[in-house]
Design brief:
Strand order of the largest sheet: 1-4-5-6-7-8-9-10
Number of domains: 1
Helix content: 10-25%
CATH superfamily: Domain of unknown function DUF4822
CATH class: Mainly Beta
Order of helices and strands: HHEEEEEEEEEE
Distance between the termini: 63 Å
Number of helices: 2
CATH topology: Lipocalin
Number of strands: 10
Shape: globular
CATH architecture: Beta Barrel
Radius of gyration: 20 Å
Length: about 160
């Protein structure tokens, strides 16, 4: 019995010490910036080079212009929230979903749209740069591919 117990303990130590520390996105949190984002926000503009000539599908949900007037709620103590499309354009779908999010020490905003799944089941997320953060506004900047060239798409938020 002692032999089994020691073998189990040794196996647990080996598994714990071999845990991978590599990841594509830094997961150390910037709590100060997260607290600054706490509350209700509205997207006031979505800008990218060429927006008059082609459409971009944002977050695999809808045309990026449908996100203008969208409402976002960020809860900083549990990194959850809500997003809701609120654009009167008839071509924009109705959409509302819980989200999980965090701001890492690299200044990146990491977002998962939960929709109908639990957060741990959602494998894909979005990483955007958090820029120009103030008490009443901030910008999220993502990357899009335009004819083989990487361009920025900027979502400008204003506190409600």
């Amino acid at each position: 019995m002692k032999k089994i117990l020691w073998s189990f303990l040794f196996a647990m130590i080996v598994m714990t010490s071999c845990k991978s520390t590599s990841s594509a996105v830094n997961t150390k949190l910037d709590n100060k910036k997260e607290v600054m984002l706490k509350g209700d926000w509205r997207v006031i503009s979505v800008d990218y080079t060429g927006k008059d000539y082609f459409a971009v599908n944002s977050f695999n949900i809808a045309n990026s212009q449908c996100f203008i007037n969208s409402e976002w709620n960020f809860i900083s103590n549990n990194n959850k929230g809500q997003m809701k499309l609120n654009n009167p354009n008839t071509e924009c779908p109705e959409f509302s979903s819980p989200i999980t999010w965090y701001v890492n020490k690299d200044g990146q905003f990491v977002l998962k749209v939960i929709n109908t799944h639990k957060a741990k089941k959602v494998k894909d997320g979005y990483v955007l740069d958090l820029n120009d953060i103030t008490e009443n506004s901030f910008k999220l900047v993502g990357k899009i591919n335009v004819a083989g060239s990487v361009k920025n798409i900027t979502y400008s938020f204003q506190r409600k």
